[in-house]
Amino acid sequence: MFFLYSILLTIGFILLLPKFVFDAVINGKYAAGFGQRFGYLPKFDSRGRPVVWIHCVSVGETNAARPLIQRIHEEYPNFAIVVSTTTLTGQKLAKSVFADIADLVFYFPFDWKSTVRRSLRKINPAIVLLTETEIWFNFIRETSRSGARIAIVNGRLSERSFSRFSYIPRFMHRVFSYIDLALMRENADANRIMSLGLRGSKVRVTGNIKFDHQIAKAESDLTEDLRRRFDIKSDAPLIIAASTHSSEETWVLDAFKRVWDSSENMPRLMIVPRHPERFGEVTGLIKKTGFSWVRRSEEPSRRDKTADVILLDSIGELRSAYPLAEIVFVGGSMIPHGGQSIYEPAASGRAIITGPYTTNFEAAVREFLQRDALIQIDQVTGVDVAEKLAAEISDLLVDKEKRQRMGTNALAAMNENSGAVSKTVEHLSHYFEEIIRRDANTVNANKARGV
After folding, report:
1. How many Å apart are CA 306 and CA 296, to the nearest integer?
2. What is the pLDDT of residues 157-189, one digit of tens each?
3. The pTM is what?
């Protein structure tokens, strides 16, 4: 089955190669790190330390892993930490936020046996942590065969993924036999992964580490830099449209026009597209509105302080922008994508609005709704989308008490659900201590032999 999987993976790669080439030529999305994806990694020297390899797919997983990686760094300083990502945006963010922690940040290998082995030989990890249930069949098997411990952390297994994997139960049972530990977010995730063949003795429920949100000093400093540059003030409340996808910017801009025309205090809008390759496209949409606008990437100018619309065309700065907002619309939720993260604006105590498509964060959205910490727009179509969004934003702008109550409730939800990082490190500590003892025994044995 592993052989058949590799053949199918190769066929898929060949079929998608034109897309890889196109994206590489247009925006460098896959050109960056293409060699690394084949296992040809940069020079790396662990200096004799055992290595922890943490894989974060993209920006969301990288942000979520920050408190976990920080805790591992603090509690096990004699381990080298390396971080891999799949996407370009995740790579850029990881290199920024883990600059003082990670010994290497690189691209995750394509899941062929040869490329995986090449990467494993270069890194020689003692422990590999896969965030959010990244199930790469060859990688999991080859990592286990290399002698490294392999664990899933902050594990999530959606109903859709579960259904897909259920078609190959015997193969999944074999793949999961190579997993040493699965630390899942919720009981439902744990039950699904056990139904696919992972032994119950290897599964624990630790909660969601995304609730363990920490605001670093560098982020707070950036918040103040953004506040000063764009002259963000409460008498011209800022609305942030975060992690938006195609079509959503059109609806947001239409909604903002309706709000702006009827508002007494002239709000401002900051749009943050989810994918950097769309920055140019979104700039074109903003130009057509007639609003004054600026881009974050441009040199500072007097226009920054008065622009109606701000395009945050940067990577890794959205978290620092949230404290400046009065209202945050979280994108990826007005289209059948599943929604982007609500945790970061909640940690800043903001009033949050989402669309109806939030399956990626189903449990959190459900709890936030129960706590009156979030507004979720019902499924609507066409011009009704902008009209409904405008109505909700206008209501929040008028009702300051409601905004503050929602923000307070969101922050309380974050604080009351925190603690997953501590539980995760506690369950992983057995493997860290095992490696420490093993290395100590090796040193002692070498000394006894006079080596």
Report:
1. 13
2. 988 899 999 999 999 999 999 999 999 999 999
3. 0.90
